[in-house]
Design goal:
By secondary structure, the chain is mainly α. The protein is built from one helix and no strands.
Amino acid sequence: MSALKADNKALREKMDKVAGDQETVATERSVAAVKAYKTSLPCRKERLEGIK
C-alpha cells in the first residue's frame, strides 16, 4: 500500500511540474503575441493614413 502512495505522490509531483511548464509556455506565448502586435502598430497606422 505504501508503494502505491509513493507512486501516486511521484505522479502528482510530475503533473505539478508539467502544469507549471505549461503556464510558463502560455506566458511566453502571450508576451510574444503582445510584442508582435506592438511591432505591427506603426505599419497599420501607415496603411490607415495612406487610405485617407
